[in-house]
Automatic annotation (TrEMBL):
It holds the Pfam family M20_dimer. It comes from Pocillopora meandrina. This is Peptidase M20 domain-containing protein 2. InterPro entries: Amidohydrolase, Bact_exopeptidase_dim_dom, Peptidase_M20, Peptidase_M20/M20A_hydrolases, Peptidase_M20_dimer, Xaa-Arg_dipeptidase. Gene3D superfamilies: 3.30.70.360, Zn peptidases. GO terms for molecular function: dipeptidase activity. CDD domains: M20_ACY1L2-like. Belongs to the peptidase M20A family. Residues 177-270 form the Peptidase M20 dimerisation domain. The lineage of its organism: Eukaryota, Metazoa, Cnidaria, Anthozoa, Hexacorallia. NCBIfam families: amidohydrolases (TIGR01891).
Length: 399
C-alpha cells in the first residue's frame, strides 16, 4: 500500500480517537469509580461490552471467563490484530495501577482502527480483535485465556500500561507465588511452653533466612514475603503460621533456581523448630517474563515520538504481568506511558492521578500510537515478516 494511504489511515485513526474523546473519558471514569477485584469485574465488563456493541463491534461477552470479552470487526483472510483491555482493581487502593486507563486504551485503539479502515474504499483484509482480560493483578486471567485458546488466531498483540515514566521496553519479570503453612503444637506459653511446637518461630526463621539469602541473590532477583498468620493470643504457643511469598527473576529458568533456594529456607525452618511445612506454589498461574517484539517496539516508538512522546534512556520500570505469558505465544509489546505523575503504581496518589484529564489525554496518545503501529504492520508487508522473525528468535531475559 502506498505511503500516502498509510498516512491517510493514520490521520483518520487519530481523528476518530479525538472525536470520541469525551465518550472514552466517561467510560474510563465509570470503571475508575467502580473498582472491582479480579474475576469480579462485572460492571466494567458490562459497560465496556455495551459501549463496543453500540460502536458496531461484534461482541462476545463472558468470553471463556465470566468477566472476559472479545470484540471484533473486519474480515477473515488477512492479518488479525490483537489489542488488550484490562479493568481489574486492587484491594483498598482501587485503580492504583490505572487499569481503568488500560480499558480505555484498548477500546480507543480498536475504535480508531475500525473507523479509519471503514473510511477508505480499497482497504486490506484485516480483523481487529479487542480482548477484555480480567484479573491481571496476581490471578493470571490471560494465562487462563491462553489455555482456553483465546490468543491462537492473533498475528500480533499490543497493550499499553500507565506509569510515572515512558518506557518502551519495560523489564517484566517472571513471577511465581506460594502459600507456606507451618503446623506445630499449641500449649500454654507460661505454664507448659516445653509442650509446644511454635509454628510462628518457624515462620520468623524462614523470613530471616530469606533475608540472609538476599546477599547471595542476583541483583535482578526479588523475593517478597509477608507473615499472613501467626497465632491468636500471646499466651498460646501458635500451632499454625502462614506466609505469602512471591519470587521474581529476569527469566523463567532463573525462576526455578531461586525457587529452589527459597524452598530450602522454608524446609530448614521446619526442621529447626520441629514443625511440619506445606508449600502450595501457584504454578498454574506462573507469570513469564516479557519477550518484547523488537520490530513492533521500534514501530511503536516512531509513532509515539511523532505524537510528542520521548523515551528517556534512563527511565526504568520493573514488575510482572500475565502479558509476559502472552508474549511467548504471540508477538507482543507492552510499553509503559507516563500519566503526568511522579507517584508510583499501587499507591493512593497514583489512584488519584489515574482519574485525571491529563491521564486520559496521555492514554489517547498511547492509543493512537498503537493504532498507527497496527496500520504500519498491516500496510507494509515486510514488517509482518520482521515481526515473525523476531518472535522466532527471542532474547531471553538477562542473567
Amino acid at each position: 500500500m502506498a505511503s500516502d494511504q498509510v498516512k491517510v489511515l493514520k490521520e483518520k485513526a487519530k481523528e476518530a480517537i479525538d472525536i470520541y474523546s469525551p465518550e472514552l473519558y466517561e467510560l474510563n471514569k465509570i470503571v475508575w469509580e467502580n473498582p472491582e477485584l479480579g474475576f469480579q469485574e462485572r460492571s466494567a465488563h458490562d459497560q465496556l461490552t455495551e459501549f463496543l456493541a453500540n460502536q458496531g463491534f461484534d461482541v462476545t461477552p463472558h468470553y471463556t471467563l465470566d468477566t472476559a470479552f472479545r470484540a471484533e470487526c473486519g474480515e477473515d483472510g488477512g492479518l488479525t490484530i490483537g489489542l488488550i483491555s484490562e479493568y481489574d482493581a486492587l484491594p483498598e487502593v482501587g485503580h492504583a495501577c490505572g487499569h481503568n486507563l488500560i480499558a480505555e486504551s484498548g477500546v480507543a485503539a480498536a475504535l480508531g482502527l475500525k473507523i479509519a479502515l471503514n473510511a477508505i474504499n480499497q482497504r486490506p483484509k484485516v480483523k481487529i480483535v479487542l480482548l477484555g482480560t480480567p484479573a491481571e493483578e496476581a490471578k493470571g486471567g490471560k494465562i487462563l485465556m491462553i489455555k482456553n485458546g483465546c490468543f491462537k488466531d492473533l498475528d500480533f498483540c499490543m497493550m499499553v500500561h500507565p506509569s510515572p515514566v515512558d518506557v518502551l521496553k519495560p523489564v517484566i519479570l517472571a513471577r511465581e507465588s506460594a502459600t507456606i503453612t507451618y503446623k506445630g503444637h499449641a500449649a500454654h506459653a507460661a505454664a507448659f511452653p516445653w509442650e509446644g511446637i511454635n509454628a510462628l518461630d518457624a515462620a520468623v526463621m524462614a523470613y530471616t533466612s530469606i533475608s540472609a539469602l538476599r546477599q547471595q541473590m542476583k541483583p535482578t532477583w526479588r523475593v517478597h514475603l509477608i507473615i499472613s498468620e501467626g497465632g491468636v493470643k500471646p499466651n498460646i504457643i501458635p500451632d499454625r503460621a502462614q506466609l505469602r511469598c512471591s519470587v521474581r527473576t529476569m527469566n523463567d529458568s532463573d525462576l526455578e533456581v531461586l525457587k529452589e533456594k527459597v524452598k530450602n529456607c522454608f524446609e530448614a525452618a521446619a526442621s529447626a523448630t520441629g514443625c511440619k511445612v506445606s508449600m502450595e506454589w501457584e504454578t498454574a498461574t506462573k507469570y513469564s517474563h516479557l519477550e518484547t517484539n523488537n520490530t513492533l517496539a521500534e514501530l511503536y516508538q516512531a509513532n509515539a515520538e511523532s505524537l510528542g512522546v520521548s523515551f528517556p534512556p534512563e527511565a526504568k520500570f520493573s514488575a510482572s504481568t500475565d502479558m509476559g505469558n502472552v508474549s511467548h505465544v504471540v508477538p507482543s509489546i507492552h510499553p509503559m506511558y507516563s500519566i503526568g505523575t511522579t507517584a508510583p503504581n499501587h499507591s493512593h496518589a497514583f489512584t488519584t492521578a489515574a482519574a485525571t484529564e491529563e491521564a486520559h489525554e496521555k492514554t489517547l496518545i498511547a492509543s493512537k500510537a498503537m493504532a498507527m503501529t497496527a496500520i504500519d504492520v498491516l500496510c507494509k508487508q515486510d514488517f509482518m515478516g520482521k515481526v515473525r522473525i523476531d518472535f522466532k528468535q527471542p532474547n531471553e531475559g538477562e542473567n
